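Request:
Um, any thoughts?
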Amino acid sequence: MSARYLLPPDVVFTDLSGAEGREGILLNVATRRYYSLNETGLAIYERLMAGDRAAQIAEHLTAGYEIDLESATRSVAGLLAALASAGLIREESP
């Protein structure tokens, strides 16, 4: 069973989606660094914050994008690892 993730209290999310497309920004207030999410990253992040687990998010991507489950699973795992490494998400305590 994969973990659920939370937004740490020192991280701020802003959805910048508009006429030009979908994107989001995460700001780590503690480190004063910001990170941008493209359309796919934003889709993953939104599902993550809705409480979906990695496998559910990968399945969601296959339904909305032209991507197979194996590639979607790798993409989700890669983004989760990057976000966790940057302190932008943390695993929910059991």
About this structure: The chain has three helices and five strands. The radius of gyration is 13 Å. The chain has a mean pLDDT of 91.
